[in-house]
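Dear V.,

Thank you for sending over the compound details. I've combined the ligand you provided, fe (ii) ion, with the protein sequence from our construct and run the structure prediction for the complex. I'm sharing the raw inputs here so there's no ambiguity about protonation or stereochemistry in the SMILES, which I know was a concern on your side last time.
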Amino acid sequence: MSHSTQEQHAGSAIALGYTSLDEEIVLDHLPVSGNIPTWLEGSLLRNGPAKFEVGEQRYRHWFDGFSMLHRFTFQQGQVAYANRFLRSDSYVESMRKQRLTGSAFGTTDPCKAIFRKTQSALINANVSVDQMVGEFVAMTEAPVPVRFDPHTLDTLGVVEYDDRLTGHHGCAHPHHDGTRQVLSFMTEFGPQSEFKVFAIGNQAPPQRRLVGSYAVDIYSYIHSFSISEHYIIIAEYPYQMKPLDLLQSGKPFIENFHWYPEHGTRFVVMDKQDGHVVRTFQAESFFSFHHINAFERDGDIFVDLAAYPDATIIRGLYLDQLRGELHAIELPHPSEFRRYHLPLSSEATTAGYERITNMSIELPTINYRRYNAHDYGVAYGISTDKQNPAVIANQLVRVDIRNRSALTWAEENCYPGEPVFVEAPNAQAEDDGVVLSVVLDGQKCNSFLLVLHAQTFQEIGRAEVPHHIPFGFHGLFFPGIE
Ligand SMILES: [Fe+2]
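Below is the predicted structure of the protein with fe (ii) ion bound, written out as structure tokens.
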């Protein structure tokens, strides 16, 4: 193949990852190659946008597509698969009217969604899944998660909180603070906007308890946060908007934000127990979607995240960009694995960082159950091969944090999604287990579930589905779901 033909091929393969998957499918046995460990019992549940147009109308931004839930179920070395669209209000209405309805991140007027959202609205929760308040939930950045059945993937309704906490913009990445509570945040927009951190306990009906809050005059777009043993750590990037502009501009949600590098990035450290803001630290401006982990050592806090020099990545995720339909494709900078040092034990007010690896990393994951909020040694993510920079994620990376080394998995014309670590039974080492990733095969135009040995990062096995699975965002493995 000539160089330009190769590029064209890669371009069309990537476009396939942003092409709608219309069929809802249940497959009891996927063809498996290699050996999938028999101890791997349970289900990988994943979420992501899978439909980008209705009738003649198209969504503009990747983050807007209709949520599809995917289930890969493992039993005795066999793999079953099912998928189903989340029956959000906008999905149901759009299908009925055969045109796009409702609102989205980067397509239509946000006021309809952000300010008219009620506690009972079933939003297009296309970002992540979790198990909390005794339910399986799909989430996006709306404050109310959507419940679903992990077996049938049927949409069940919204989580009905029995409290008076209010907010407009929330978080799809809550943290499990041990088994005691789930921590998350939301912002209430108004003449005086307020950033609120809340905890959800194990009681039924579920209640959110305000942990702490602070006023925000200018709102930073924040996708995730981290926790350490004693603290909640929020990074406020200078990708900002004045909340009243959101009401008045008529622009899609994300287009109200602008990059103000002169503001820098501010870390806010909140006490988990009483919610007071312990300290803030100023850093040079950067942007991030995903914190990787945080922990305390010698009285200081270390925050690891996937950092971009600025927020151009969000512009890079418009569908015409991603599908290669534009002539001048802006390639966003790949994100770096940075470790920020918040010197809590000293009087210093600034935070510096070191780079952990020269590999780029996104959709980062760790051995969450045992190492979240603690000093840790291994992180996984998707990454871009520097030799082949014209595509986005075309490899998986396993970073050995202490040795500052990395292993990768890649295959020609293959585009992997978020790697999910699953611990082996009676595991001793942090990385004793497997890593699961849904990979798009651009050559065969279908997807497969890849199983890697978490320590060697070598393939153990794979299970193919007959169709392509559009690139997704986040998933988790649940041992109990057979
Ligand atoms: Fe995310």
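A first observation: Residues 3-478 form one domain.

Warm regards,
I. M.
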